[in-house]
Amino acid sequence: MIAKITLGTRGSELARAQALLVEKAIRTAHPSVAIETKIIVTRGDNTKVVDLTAGRKGLFTAEIERALLAGEVDVAVHSAKDLPSQTSPGAQITAVLPRAPINDVLISKHSGGLAAVPCGATVATGSVRRQRQLQWKRTDLKIVDLRGNVPTRLRKLAENEWDGIVLACAGLERLGFSPMRIESSFEGGQLFFEILSREVFLPAGGQGIIALQIRSDDQSTKALLESANDPETLLCLQAEREFLSRLHGDCNFPVGVNATISNGKMKLRAQVFEGESPLPRQAEVEGGYDEGYTLAAELLRRIRQTKEHEQRRQ
After folding, report:
1. What pLDDT digit, counting tens, does each position of 280-300 carry?
2. CA atoms within 13 A on the CB side of 41
3. How far is CA 37 from the centre of its chain?
4. What pLDDT does residue 292 have?
5. Which residues pair with 92 in a beta bridge?
6. Could you tell me what percent of the chain has a pLDDT over 90?
7. In angstroms, rounded to a whole number, what is the distance separating the alpha carbons of residues 293 and 285?
8. pTM of the model
9. Catalytic residue selected from 82, 163, 218, 250
């Protein structure tokens, strides 16, 4: 039995909270194991020098992955949606915690949700997927970019003349906010929450999942993490990542994909925005709970088939 392991994570408040959840999950099954957490600064944490024109691929994960492969940490703790669909050779996602709620949340200065946001209002989000989804349903909105950790983003909403921002429900909950409440106060102002429909705001692949990455040849750590792993969530993540890999899409690409398992069946749904079209191409497939890789290939075939039908109509 391993006597000690080192977790590697970012230093944001949310990343630290997620690392604590991982530590708790490991200690539940292995109370005698000593657990150390090492904070690693990623390129995405340095907002003064980061260049988003090159995309967000690996922006918050590459340095942690390098520390893992160099043997500086034993387990890399990631927000799964930040991971590129192709990880480095020699590293593998071996376990995930149970998935948190996958929905996006609109946090607004106006009550009544997205439908009640005034015409021409300004809504901020750092996600190209959310930008396209907002423009799909509300072409009148002015969409602006949003960077920073969750508290910083809430503060920016309070300080700017913006009408709302969109964040992930999972991150809010892990930091102690309650998106299920309709109204909340923040720094002296009133903010209103709306859980956005996943029918329109289909989440990013891996959204709500904490992924545990190890060196591929580290069988001892792999065995240790088995008790923390949620098998169904891992199967869903593998299916979503397989679709993104086949599509060559990462977190800087306007695509949503989500897998669910119920009664031994997996449903896999995708929503892809392409070019200047305001409308996404969408498809859904269903099969066995362990057929994620096959379903991902079929889903991409149907998405491409939809595109071909559109082209023939034009």
Report:
1. 999 999 999 999 999 999 999
2. 4
3. 22
4. 98
5. 214
6. 78
7. 12
8. 0.91
9. 82
Residue for token pair 């039995």:
1
- Can you give the pLDDT at residue 157? 95
Residue 54: the pLDDT is: 41
Q: Which of 305, 262, 266 is closest to 283 using CA atoms?
A: 305
Other C-beta atoms closer than 10 Å to the C-beta of 114 total 21
Predicted local confidence at residue 198, as pLDDT: 94
Q: List Cα–Cα distances, 113 to 70, 99, 108, 196, in angstroms.
A: 47, 25, 7, 9
Instruction: Encode pLDDT of 151-207 as tens digits.
Output: 899 999 999 999 999 999 999 999 988 877 777 777 667 899 999 999 999 999 999
DSSP string, 84-100: -SSPPTTEEEEEEPPPP
Rounded (10°) CA dihedral 120, 122, 124, 129? 0
Encoded amino acid at 227, one letter? S
| pLDDT single digits (tens) 60-83 | 899 999 999 999 999 999 999 999
* Residue 270 CB-density burial (10 A; 0-12 exposed, 13-18 middle, 19+ buried): buried
Under a CB-based contact definition with an 8 Å cutoff, are residues 138 and 125 in contact?
no
Contact between 201 and 239 under an 8 Å Cβ cutoff? The reply is no
Active site residue 290: no
How far apart (Å, rounded) are the C-alpha atoms in residues 77 and 54? Answer: 24
Which ranges constitute the DSSP H helices of the chain? 13-29, 62-69, 128-137, 150-159, 169-174, 219-225, 231-247, 292-313
**Which residue in this structure is represented by tokens 């969408």?**
282
Whole-number Å distance between alpha carbons of 88 and 214: 11
Are 83 and 63 in contact by the 8 Å Cβ rule? The answer is no
| DSSP assignment string, 6-54 | EEEE--SHHHHHHHHHHHHHHHHH-TTSEEEEEE---GGG-TTT--GGG
- Which pLDDT value is given to residue 185? 73
Q: Is the pLDDT of residue 1 over 60?
A: yes
Cβ proximity of 69 and 188 under 8 Å? no
Cα–Cα dist 142/131, whole Å = 10
